[in-house]
Amino acid sequence: MTLEVEPPEPPELEFVDPNEYEDATISADGEEIDYRREELQAFLKDGAWEEAFDEWRADTDLDEREYGIARDLELFAGFDFFWDDFADRVGYHAPGIPEDWQARKYHPDLDTWGTVSSINAELTEFGQIVSVTLKEEYVDWEAEYEPPEDLPDFD
Fold it and tell me: What percentage of the chain carries pLDDT values higher than 70?
């Protein structure tokens, strides 16, 4: 059952070192990295965000109430997307509701861990869909990273 809601605006991508996220590690070897956020931002505004949102909402397990909570908390604005040259992919960081949501009275409609878990899981799923959409449909550059020739062959 498709979630009948309008897509939120795409996030504004700002410089954040992805290594600061608990869920991402980017190999830098001390070099300055171009995360290509400006290009990714343009792709999001040119349709990648809405295209990915349409795919996501067709299969999401969120209901309108849960989606409304995520919108109220402006979680969609908290996404980050960045080019991970080492892995030849668009990396992402999905926002989420923190573990101390009850103590902080984070949102009046948050009532169970199940709701929190569902929202967090679906935001992660959405981030993955956006990442894949960007890589497969929009990114037209190749990774510049060349692995060393002495790596073992795992075939």
Answer: 80
